[in-house]
Amino acid sequence: MRAHWLQHVAYEGLGHLEGWLTRAGAEVTCTRLFAGEPLPDPDGIDLLVILGGPMSVNDDATLPWLVAEKAFIARVIDRGVGVLGICLGAQLIAAALGATVGPNPEREVGWWPVEAVPVPPQSSGPPLFPFPPRLTCLHWHGDTFQLPSGAVRLAGSQACANQAMQVGRRVIGLQFHPEATPDWVRAVLAHSPGSLRPGPYVMAENALTADLTERCRIGNSLAERLMEFIST
């Protein structure tokens, strides 16, 4: 399996997904878009992971590589490749498929519950990922995505309607961060302390960093199931 991942800032890495890819025996490559690295040939990858970042998908004027990235994502999806987009990555999937991305009514930063939403009974179409009824996940976002045409909403939260979506058989977008490890959380926090400015869905630093090992374990388990789902 040839897996490729897209990185938008140096301090947001694969987290728990790195170990999963190693155990899966994947040949892993990366494009560091912030460093001006070129995107690969879409025909040369079997699995794509799109990570998060502090920028907006609408920052084309100041970050022109976003234009090429969105076109690349659309081509990869069109090929039927398995794709997992996380936070900004999910927003990029939505934008690449023609949906709107913009500010969420509330910023979410911290550990907040995500709940599965009822999906219409299916008489045809691809199987949907069995999202857990409820789990507490790490959030770190101000923007959110609308659903592109043909997408199915899998989960939402009290502050954000679209927390998980599926497009076709092998494309999943998540507004939250199941890849986060304790080191990942500390690195992001060190580089974005301003994101903790007070809000109804913004945790204080001591609450956000409490019980990290167990909290991350729950999200990591979901991340592994998602990777297995899109890679088969």
Instruction: Give the rounded overall mean pLDDT.
Output: 96
- Overall CATH architecture: 3-Layer(aba) Sandwich
Weakly predicted, low-confidence segments: none
Count of DSSP H/I helices: 6
- Distance from N terminus to C terminus (CA atoms, Å) equals 11 Å
Output the structural class: alpha/beta
Count of all domains: 1
Principal-axis shape: globular
Residue share in helix? 25-40%
Question: Describe it for me?
Answer:
The protein is an alpha/beta fold and 232 residues long. It has one domain (2-230): Class I glutamine amidotransferase (GATase) domain (Rossmann fold, 3-Layer(aba) Sandwich). The chain has six helices and nine strands. Strands 2-1-3-4-9-8-7-5-6 form a nine-stranded mixed beta sheet. β7 and β8 form a beta hairpin. It starts with a strand and ends with a helix. The mean pLDDT is 96.
Q: Main traits of this protein?
A:
232 residues; Rossmann fold; nine-stranded mixed beta sheet; 28% helix; alpha/beta; 9 strands
Outline of the structure:
The chain has 232 residues and is α/β, with parallel strands linked by helices. It has helices at residues 16-23, 65-78, 88-96, 182-191, 205-208, 212-230; strands spanning 2-7, 27-32, 47-50, 82-86, 101-116, 134-145, 151-156, 164-167, 171-174. It has a nine-stranded mixed beta sheet.
List the helices and strands and how they pair.
Elements: E1 2-7, H1 16-23, E2 27-32, E3 47-50, H2 65-78, E4 82-86, H3 88-96, E5 101-116, E6 134-145, E7 151-156, E8 164-167, E9 171-174, H4 182-191, H5 205-208, H6 212-230
Parallel strand pairs: 1-2, 1-3, 3-4, 4-9
Antiparallel strand pairs: 5-6, 5-7, 7-8, 8-9
Helix pairs in contact: 2-3
